[in-house]
Amino acid sequence: MPPTSTADASSPPGQTLSHHPAQPAHWTEAIPNAEFCANCGQPRTGDFCAACGQRHLKTRLRLWPLIKQVSSMVFNVDRGLFHTFLNLLRRPGGVAKDYIRGKQRPYVNPLTYIFIGAALQMVSLFFNQSFISEGMQDSLNQLQELPPYQKPFADLESKIGDVPTAFSRVYISSLQQGYSYAALIFFCFPFAVLLMAFHSMRGEQFKLGETSVFALFMVGHMLVITAFVTTLSLRLAPAAMQSLVGPLMYFLIAMHGHTGFFQSTWISRLATTCALGLSTIIFVCSILGIFMVSLVVFIAFQSIG
Ligand SMILES: [Zn+2]
Fold it and tell me: How many Cα atoms within 13 Å fall on the side-chain side of residue 4?
């Protein structure tokens, strides 16, 4: 606990406040003149704490400087989020390598980056959900017409209403879950484990933390890029191509990242490709799994209701 000003309630009741003429009327007024680091309690010297690196406040917080600080964290080209994004575009493997070697300050934490990728996916899903559910409803409507499916669809319809509408709603919510937590658990994690396993067979020894940094930056970047590219491809590309755009971007980003991080032999590239392919399959299966479970739960609840 840093020794704070003496204006606290623990002062003996008889003692008058006149002993401390500079005593602030409110705790916020003491902020600019604090003698001790607000974070660790060491005496204040200079602009930053020598012990813990905390920047000392010289004025009270106002809204506009706070907004400028946040926007410079996001859009600064020399460090932070935009810097990380630009460098991941140019040299994705180099960013992961810098970070693992200990040059971390210019970049955002890889876990932060994947959460930003997931947030952008949510935004793109919001704009694209009508395209996605229309596509799904069209296929289900065609299926519904086929003789073997007419009876099961009619049975379901008596329980949950229009089947294509209900299914597409559950599917959108599965995609939302897929890009929030499932990408981390069922894509990044298997990717990191498989990269470590496959590359160790080729004599490149990595720690799981190191391949995790690579996987988080790459998958984060895949989410950022596909959030934009998918939004465009759903509107511009022919229907048959749309589902290929995502995996193609994943492959290109992983191969670009491979350069400058792993060995540049073809067998090493094959190891990265296999790790990516398998973890993509695990990710897609996890979304399908979430969809199936959600569907069963949805139908069960509708049947009770
Ligand atoms: Zn400190």
Answer: 15
CA of 43 to the centre of ligand 1 (A): 8
Q: What is the pLDDT of residues 234-260, one digit of tens each?
A: 888 887 788 888 899 999 999 999 998
Q: Are the C-beta atoms of 117 and 221 separated by less than 8 Å?
A: yes
Q: Per residue in 196-209, pLDDT tens?
A: 999 999 889 999 99
Q: Tell how far the Cα of 140 is from the centroid of ligand 1, in angstroms.
A: 61
Structure tokens at 94: 């180099």
Distance 192 CA to ligand 1 centre (A): 36
CA of 35 to the centre of ligand 1 (A): 11
Neighbours of ion ligand 1 (CB under 5 A): 37, 39-40, 42, 49, 51-52, 54
Answering whether pTM is above 0.85, one says: no
Give the three-state DSSP class for 43. Answer: strand
Q: Tell me the CA distances in angstroms from 40 to 1, 44, 50, one per residue in order.
A: 8, 10, 10
Cα–Cα distance for residue pair 117/260, rounded to 1 Å: 23
What is the distance in A from the centroid of ligand 1 to the CA of 73? 22
DSSP state for residue 261 in the 8-state scheme: T
Q: 244: CA distance to ligand 1 center in Å?
A: 51
The strand pairing partners of 36, in sequence order, are 43
C-alpha 48 to ligand 1 mean position (Å): 8
Tracing tokens 């009270």 back to the chain, one arrives at: 60
Closest among 80, 31, 28, 30 to 55, alpha carbons compared = 31
For the chain, give every domain's residue range. 1-61, 90-304
| Tokens encoding 254 | 């992983």
How far apart CA 41 and CA 64 sit, in angstroms, is: 28
Ligand 1 centroid – CA 55 distance (Å): 8
Q: What angle do CA 14, 15, 20 make, to 5 degrees?
A: 160
